[in-house]
């Protein structure tokens, strides 16, 4: 099988890193870029040496495209992905996979019937940081995982983003904007979530833009800007999770797994690498004893790249006839968890998660993004 031919729909900010990486992988060939503004697609295509550009429809109708990379806004993720499936293309979509359960389930069913694959961001779980940590946990470095803690705290993207309103609108907020990174990582490690309880708050109903051409304008806050979630995993573990756009304390990327024989800290799930370290239990501590826990560092194994790894893994998995890592089923289960948390925050009830997902595989040993395996 030759390199998988890719068409990108959506030439916004995030397309830059995708195109930089995808055009550097020998097993992927980017053949088209499309956008609502064709001139924007043309600029990106010419910058990265892509031979064809136009609208999203031009990408969908292009017979040379095997897989569509959907980088549109979340509100049309499902619509664009369904159109790609109808055109006989595999799909990789930015997160979230969708914004509601019904249309997202329909997308997965249509893809299965058409015999094409769906992959869903985040692909940070394919980075060497997460992959190394997952292998260490599977090898028993902390014994049996018992419970987890995660935290994402910030004052809010309105402080730095020139167009922040969409991050506080329905389908976003800290839960649906940042939650995919944390919950995808945890489900990939521990398996499916069985139930959630959540509480949310929104202390401001409007916020102000602080930078860019619209600085000083206000916009509505439509969703909770702080959410705290308690998860129960099907494997018996439980977790606590804070996601906030209201915190004076800036603390990002906290993800800790506590086990029967130690605790491990993982890299920021919004990054492809980072610190991996664990501590072992102290043993007996007597009154007046002074102690200091020793952290054991684990070097990340693998090549650090960035967004686009999920597309590359799909290309190789299709050729090899194996499951890819960041599947649509994983994306749907994470969406179900987040929507259930959102609903629980509104009602105060504990909710059972209706979906599940199979064990999420590790990348094959020695996975090298820059190796040519499909020529």
TrEMBL record:
Keywords: NAD, Oxidoreductase. Residues 4-118 form the Gfo/Idh/MocA-like oxidoreductase N-terminal domain. Residues 130-265 form the GFO/IDH/MocA-like oxidoreductase domain. Its EC number is 1.1.1.292. The keyword Transmembrane helix does not apply. One of its GO terms (molecular function) is nucleotide binding. Pfam families: GFO_IDH_MocA, GFO_IDH_MocA_C3. This is 1,5-anhydro-D-fructose reductase. It comes from Microbacterium laevaniformans.
């Amino acid at each position: 099988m030759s390199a998988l031919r890719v068409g990108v729909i959506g030439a916004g900010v995030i397309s830059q890193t995708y195109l930089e990486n995808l055009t550097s992988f020998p097993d992927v060939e980017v053949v088209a870029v499309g956008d609502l503004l064709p001139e924007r697609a043309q600029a990106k295509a010419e910058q990265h040496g892509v031979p064809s550009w136009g609208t999203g429809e031009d990408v969908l109708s292009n017979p040379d495209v095997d897989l569509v990379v959907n980088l549109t806004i979340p509100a049309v993720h499902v619509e664009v992905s369904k159109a790609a499936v109808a055109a006989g293309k595999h799909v990789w979509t930015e997160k979230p996979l969708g914004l509601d359960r019904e249309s997202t389930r329909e997308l997965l069913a249509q893809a299965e019937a058409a015999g094409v694959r769906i992959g869903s961001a985040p692909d940070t779980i394919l980075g060497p940081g997460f992959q190394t940590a997952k292998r260490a946990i599977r090898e028993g470095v902390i014994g049996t995982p018992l419970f987890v803690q995660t935290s994402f705290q910030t004052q809010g993207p309105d402080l730095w983003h020139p167009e922040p309103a969409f991050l506080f609108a329905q389908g976003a907020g800290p839960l649906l904007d940042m939650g995919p990174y944390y919950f995808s990582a945890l489900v990939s490690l521990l398996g499916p979530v069985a139930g959630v309880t959540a509480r949310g708050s929104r202390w401001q109903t409007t916020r102000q833009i602080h930078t860019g051409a619209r600085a000083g304008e206000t916009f509505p806050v439509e969703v909770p800007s702080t959410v705290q979630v308690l998860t129960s995993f099907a494997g018996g573990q439980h977790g606590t999770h804070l996601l906030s756009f209201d915190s004076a304390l800036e603390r990002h990327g906290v993800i800790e797994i506590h086990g029967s024989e130690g605790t491990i800290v993982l890299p920021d799930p919004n990054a492809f690498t980072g610190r991996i370290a664990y501590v072992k239990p102290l043993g007996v501590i007597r009154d007046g004893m002074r102690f200091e826990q020793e952290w054991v560092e684990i070097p990340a194994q693998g090549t650090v790249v960035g967004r686009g790894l999920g597309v590359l893994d799909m290309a190789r998995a299709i050729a090899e006839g194996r499951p890819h890592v960041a599947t649509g089923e994983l994306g749907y289960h994470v969406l179900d968890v987040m929507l259930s948390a959102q609903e629980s925050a509104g009602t105060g009830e504990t909710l059972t998660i209706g979906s599940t997902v199979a064990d999420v595989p590790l990348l094959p040993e020695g996975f090298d993004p820059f190796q040519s395996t499909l020529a």
